């Protein structure tokens, strides 16, 4: 069950021709796929296209009605390999994953898919996760398109453009027998907008029909000598076909006046940012009517040489707005101009930054600098020579003051006690080399835990500790991998590798029942019933099946004592080979989403229900905050007491507490202090509950009274 | 800086609105509401966000652009730009600070709506002392950076209404009039949002009226409530003894009285009236030595009380079995009629706590025999969950709390008293040569806190800070150095900063 449900929104996928669709970018993409008669869809979740997978999962009924197969792929490589269905059959297929972590994983399949080429349109929707809020953004998808010779579309970030781009992609793919990548950036995925829908189309051929009449063509299989021929075919046939298609179908767009001394070439995704800069400079209006000619590359690879040279005709200089590095487009265009003996100057990374997101300010500064230098006559006075009086105040004090607020473990997260236990065992046995992995558990590298030295890739935590395996060492390495990464490729890359190489390290598999960091999608070991997928495959069984002899399973990670004792055992046991601890507890975000409505309903319905919450006795807490250094729960904060005798704020648990118990367990395991209490409120208590409570409270009241009558009692007025 | 094309008529401009929120505050809901309100008012709107971070307690931005619908689709940007934001909503005070740093607040342009409450970031919470960033600097910067600054505690307002801060933020937005939409349209949208609509409307209304009334006047810091003199109840004999102690406090210089009375109340509550007498006897020494300003007496009044009320099993048990505590937990947890409260306390006693609660001689006897100690520790040292709503659990703690009567003869009391006397004497001995240094020595008592290992570490920090005393004694800035050492000791758990500061002192000539 994913973090976000699209059950209501997917009804919009049924809209027919002429009706207005209004919603998020990802939903629009899904609708476009159905309008294109897609035969199968799949992918692997990850920001920014996690929600696209969630939409597809929630839309299974609609997909089923149309005869579209839906696959939640095991990895990006799997998803790309799935597109093999379009190699011999005229079936349109789409796969989606995030870039670049996904394109990296998919590379092998991508190369082979591109080599043999496709018959049916094959579309890969990549979420380009670059800039604010991004987790993995080191490389550009552009490089993958170039090296595998697949075409890359980068549409303007509005719903009609994205939808058209999906349609274009399938046609382009079929016209050039080449897979096409469609790139959408993070904010574009979540942008709200409208477009006029078309009817959904059933696929011309379904996967069922293909299965019933199999085809093969040796020429399309990647094995010499065919693969040598593919190399030539890619350049001699498919590339020109693609360029022809892009030119004749006017995939790239021109805006602004036909004749001008300067112009701007930009990736489609940069369009709104460039227009905003021009609006602010005074050279474009609200609706994008611009006085500077724009050449918008909705297809960024391959480039259309004559189209570009035509745009440069009569221009002194052209600015290339290309986010990220290296500046492939700028280089290619400079080369085109050079070879054509053109005098137009290419300006790019001189005024725009080589690295980093093209934010509003970057665009404003870069476009402004270009125009000031190359076309000052176009500019209003205040832009041509801006007043440099800086009205902003000195912010250095403020910068030092405002604390960073990186994302961290959620309230009640079951992974927090795992790292509290790790911190405690390190206090006991000293520091260890700790290898981290990708997933929520990577928040361990942040305060208050500050555990973990490297992260090498999804499912590669234990693999990244594999060199640290020496009979001479007195300490073992500890590595972490999440259940998501484990099933993605960790089972073989990390566990199998450790068994085979007789790695002596400790491996902790953080099992929270979902691929939680990507939004709580189900995976093989999820414990929920999933309507269309097979779940409940225990990780422990898989690990044992791989040949691990020392396996411990902790079914409640909040038991910090047990967690710490198990870690100690793993780090000190004489048993050789990998020591695997599977630490299982359900992702609290998902658990709350699942349980809270049920509990509220049960309470309303008069059922007996116990709701836990933790608290701190403020007069017992001494304000040392050791508990926070071992927890970091958002609901555990500090509060100033109205008491001049107390200098330091005391710990305090706010209303958001979900009663997971971590505070109490940590206080116990680390022998902290007795100020924590758990308050269980019994809703709709039974007769016995009430009777016993009545008696107890009377007796306790009498004892309290007896003592309080004999001493001075200070009562706040 | 040019806002937009100068040729664009005012009414057709794009209004740019950014929301800086902390994950889990409902920033997405707020952005959706604003979009919906704009659309019912005949505007086109576009909202964007970066999902993911929002769920996981990080700082995140929601961005909305809106403009009057003329039938053509405007080109909206997808993220806010420096110097180009009309309305900035910060759902927490430091997020307002972050918005200013990022350049999203400009004096000629931006209406800044910020809730004045704080959500401490993890880096602020983990310090052993008080690591929280002060609010006043951000408040001042906000006043200086924004065209209009609307700020009050919107979190509390939402809580009071039983709603989320997104509702009160929307109320403040509507109330301040920065958007040209009538109040009813906002309320219509909230009403249509289903669950919790009534509570949301209440929070909306409260914030709306407040924002309309304050109009650019940021919240004046609420006047500190004057501490009310606590009422005292008890047997007549004890009350008259208490009165005579009060009379002694009344004889103190006026500046010292409030702190002394609080200290007196604390130690009397901790032990008994005789203990209060002991407290005043000790405090008298400082008062006698003191001069105008009374920094020494104030520090003595505060820290003597804290030192005398050391945290032992008796105190914890006593506090946990009082009727006041029961009432406080019930109100904090929100126990309503018809429900039953079950309370579990987390204890983890060790041999040290056990021996401390034995008569001094007996306790020392055990402590000096490692084998016996270890044998006992194996039986004692484990986590215990005690249900104080049950008879047996409550009675056990009630009994331990009752040991108070014999506390003076117990081992822990002797250890603590010896330590106190040493510290107090050390401080008072310095008064004649270096008054300020004496005050700082007294203030070092702040370092001692926590239980078990934390307490041991605190003691070690205390000793390390005072180990610097011989190095700085006689210097004109000796007091300042001790203060710096103490502050360094409160910065991190292990005392790494303190060690660095001590090295600096050792290198002084």
From TrEMBL, chain A:
The lineage of its organism: Bacteria, Pseudomonadati, Pseudomonadota, Alphaproteobacteria, Hyphomicrobiales. Keywords: Metal-binding, Oxidoreductase, Pyruvate. One of its GO terms (molecular function) is metal ion binding. This is Indolepyruvate ferredoxin oxidoreductase alpha subunit. InterPro entries: 4Fe4S_Fe-S-bd (IPR017896), HACL1-like (IPR045025), THDP-binding (IPR029061), TPP_enzyme_TPP-bd (IPR011766). CDD domains: TPP_IOR_alpha. Coiled coil: none annotated. Gene3D superfamilies: 3.40.50.970. One of its GO terms (biological process) is small molecule metabolic process. It comes from Phyllobacterium trifolii.
TrEMBL record, chain B:
Keywords: Oxidoreductase, Pyruvate. Pfam families: DUF6537, POR. It comes from the Bacteria. GO terms for molecular function: indolepyruvate ferredoxin oxidoreductase activity. Residues 23-207 form the Pyruvate/ketoisovalerate oxidoreductase catalytic domain. InterPro entries: DUF6537, IorB_Oxidoreductase, Pyrv/ketoisovalerate_OxRed_cat, Pyrv_flavodox_OxRed_cen. Its EC number is 1.2.7.8. The keyword Lipid metabolism does not apply. Residues 256-466 form the DUF6537 domain. SUPFAM superfamilies: Pyruvate-ferredoxin oxidoreductase, PFOR, domain III. Coiled coil: none annotated. This is Indolepyruvate ferredoxin oxidoreductase beta subunit.
């Amino acid at each position: 069950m994913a973090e976000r449900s699209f059950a209501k929104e997917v009804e919009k996928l049924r809209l027919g021709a002429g009706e207005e669709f209004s919603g998020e970018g990802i939903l629009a993409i899904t609708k476009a796929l159905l309008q294109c008669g897609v035969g199968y869809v799949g992918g692997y979740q990850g920001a920014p296209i996690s929600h696209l997978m969630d939409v597809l999962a929630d839309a299974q009924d609609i997909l089923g009605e149309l005869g579209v197969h839906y696959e939640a792929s095991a990895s990006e490589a799997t998803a790309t390999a799935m597109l093999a269905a379009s190699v011999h059959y005229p079936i349109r297929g789409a796969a989606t994953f995030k870039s670049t972590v996904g394109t990296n994983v998919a590379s092998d399949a991508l190369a082979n898919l591109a080599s043999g080429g496709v018959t049916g349109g094959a579309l890969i929707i990549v979420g380009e996760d670059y800039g604010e809020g991004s987790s993995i953004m080191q490389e550009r998808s552009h490089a993958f398109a170039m090296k595998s010779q697949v075409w890359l579309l980068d549409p303007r970030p509005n719903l009609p453009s994205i939808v058209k781009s999906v349609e274009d992609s399938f046609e382009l793919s079929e016209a050039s027998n080449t897979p096409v990548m469609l790139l959408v950036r993070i904010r574009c995925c979540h942008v709200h907008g409208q477009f006029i829908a078309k009817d959904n189309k059933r696929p011309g051929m379904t996967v069922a029909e293909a299965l019933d009449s199999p085809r093969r063509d040796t020429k399309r299989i990647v094995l010499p000598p065919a693969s040598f021929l593919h190399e030539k075919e890619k350049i001699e046939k498919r590339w020109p076909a693609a360029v022809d298609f892009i030119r004749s179908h006017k995939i790239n767009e021109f805006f602004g006046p036909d004749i001008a001394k300067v112009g701007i070439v930009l990736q489609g995704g940069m369009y709104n940012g460039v227009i905003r800069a021009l609006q602010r400079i005074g050279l474009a209006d609200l609706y994008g009517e611009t006085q500077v000619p724009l050449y918008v590359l909705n297809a960024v690879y391959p480039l259309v040489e004559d189209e570009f040279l035509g745009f440069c005709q009569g221009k002194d200089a052209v600015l290339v707005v290309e986010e990220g590095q290296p500046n492939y487009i700028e280089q290619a265009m400079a080369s085109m101009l050079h070879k054509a003996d053109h005098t137009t100057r290419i300006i790019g990374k001189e005024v725009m930054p080589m690295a980093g997101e093209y934010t509003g300010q970057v665009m404003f500064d870069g476009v402004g600098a270009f125009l000031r230098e190359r076309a000052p006559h176009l500019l209003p006075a205040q832009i041509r020579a801006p007043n440099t009086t800086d009205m902003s105040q000195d912010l250095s004090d403020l910068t030092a003051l405002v604390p960073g607020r990186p994302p961290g473990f959620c309230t009640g997260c079951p992974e927090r006690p795992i790292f509290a236990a790790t911190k405690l065992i390190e206090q006991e046995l000293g520091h260890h080399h700790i290898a981290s992995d990708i997933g929520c558990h990577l928040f361990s590298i942040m305060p208050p835990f500050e555990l973990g030295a490297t992260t090498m890739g999804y499912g590669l935590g234990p693999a990244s500790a594999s060199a640290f395996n020496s009979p001479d060492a007195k300490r073992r390495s500890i590595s972490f991998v999440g259940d998501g990464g484990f099933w993605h490729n960790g089972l073989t890359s990390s566990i199998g590798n450790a068994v085979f190489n007789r790695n002596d390290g400790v491996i902790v598999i953080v099992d929270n029942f979902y691929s939680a960091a990507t939004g709580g999608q189900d995976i093989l070991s999820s414990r929920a019933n999933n309507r269309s997928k097979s779940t409940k495959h225990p990780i422990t069984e898989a690990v044992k099946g791989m040949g691990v002899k020392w396996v411990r399973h902790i079914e409640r990670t909040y038991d910090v004592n047990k967690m710490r004792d198990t870690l100690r055992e793993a780090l000190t046991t004489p048993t050789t080979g990998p020591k695997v601890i599977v630490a299982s507890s359900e992702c609290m975000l998902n658990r709350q989403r699942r349980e809270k409505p049920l509990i509220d309903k049960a309470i309303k319905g008069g059922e007996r229900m116990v709701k836990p919450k933790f608290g701190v006795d403020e007069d017992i807490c001494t304000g040392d905050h050791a508990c926070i250094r071992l927890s970091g729960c958002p609901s555990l904060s500090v509060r100033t007491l109205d008491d001049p005798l107390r200098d330091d704020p005391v710990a305090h648990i706010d209303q958001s507490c979900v009663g997971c118990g971590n505070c109490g367990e940590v206080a116990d395991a680390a022998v902290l202090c007795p100020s924590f209490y758990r308050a269980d409120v019994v809703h709709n208590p039974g007769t016995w509950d009430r009777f016993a409570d009545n008696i107890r409270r009377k007796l306790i009241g009498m004892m309290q009274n007896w003592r309080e009558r004999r001493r001075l009692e200070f009562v706040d007025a | 800086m040019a806002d937009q094309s100068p040729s664009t008529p005012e009414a057709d401009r794009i209004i740019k609105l950014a929301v800086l929120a902390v994950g889990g505050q409902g920033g997405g809901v707020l952005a959706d509401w604003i979009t919906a309100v704009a659309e019912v008012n005949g505007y086109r709107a576009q909202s964007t966000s970066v999902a993911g971070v929002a769920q996981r307690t990080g700082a995140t931005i929601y961005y909305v652009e809106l403009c009057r619908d003329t039938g053509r689709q405007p080109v909206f940007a997808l993220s806010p730009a420096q110097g180009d934001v009309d309305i900035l909503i910060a759902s927490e005070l430091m997020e307002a600070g972050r918005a200013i740093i990022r350049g999203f607040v400009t004096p000629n342009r931006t209406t800044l709506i910020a809730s004045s409450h704080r959500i401490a970031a993890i880096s602020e919470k983990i310090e052993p002392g008080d690591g929280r960033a002060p609010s006043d600097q951000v408040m001042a910067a906000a006043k200086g950076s924004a065209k209009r600054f609307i700020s009050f505690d919107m979190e509390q307002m939402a809580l009071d209404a039983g709603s989320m801060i997104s509702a009160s933020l929307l109320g403040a937005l509507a109330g301040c009039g920065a958007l040209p939409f009538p109040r009813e349209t906002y309320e219509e949208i909230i009403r249509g949002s289903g669950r919790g609509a009534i509570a949301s409307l209440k929070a909306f209304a409260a914030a709306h009226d407040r924002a309309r009334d304050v109009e650019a006047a940021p919240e004046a810091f609420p006047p500190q409530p004057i501490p009310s003199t606590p009422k005292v109840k008890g047997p007549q004999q004890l009350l008259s003894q208490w009165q005579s102690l009060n009379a002694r406090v009344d004889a103190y210089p006026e500046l010292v009285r409030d702190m002394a009375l609080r200290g007196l109340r604390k130690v009397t509550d901790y032990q008994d009236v005789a203990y209060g007498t002991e407290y005043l006897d000790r405090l008298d020494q400082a008062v006698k030595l003191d001069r105008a300003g009374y920094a020494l007496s104030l520090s003595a009044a505060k820290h003597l009380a804290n030192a005398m009320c050391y945290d032992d099993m008796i105190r914890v048990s006593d506090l946990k079995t009082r009727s006041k505590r029961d009432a406080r937990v019930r109100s904090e947890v929100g126990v309503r009629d018809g429900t039953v409260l079950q309370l579990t306390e987390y204890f983890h006693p060790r041999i040290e706590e056990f021996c401390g609660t034995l008569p001094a001689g007996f306790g020392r006897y055990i402590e000096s025999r490692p084998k016996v100690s270890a044998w006992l520790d194996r039986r004692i040292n484990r986590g215990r969950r005690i249900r104080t709503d049950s008879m047996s659990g409550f009675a056990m703690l009630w009994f331990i709390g009752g040991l108070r009567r014999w506390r003076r003869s117990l081992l822990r009391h002797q250890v603590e008293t010896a330590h106190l006397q040493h510290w107090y004497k050390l401080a008072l001995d310095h008064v004649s040569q270096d008054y300020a240094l004496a005050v700082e020595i007294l203030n070092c008592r702040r370092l001692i806190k926590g239980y078990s290992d934390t307490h041991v570490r605190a003691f070690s920090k205390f000793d390390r800070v005072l180990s610097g005393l011989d190095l700085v004694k006689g210097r004109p800035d000796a007091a300042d150095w001790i203060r710096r050492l103490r502050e360094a000791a409160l910065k991190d758990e292990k005392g790494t900063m303190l060690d660095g500061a001590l090295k600096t002192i050792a290198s002084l000539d």
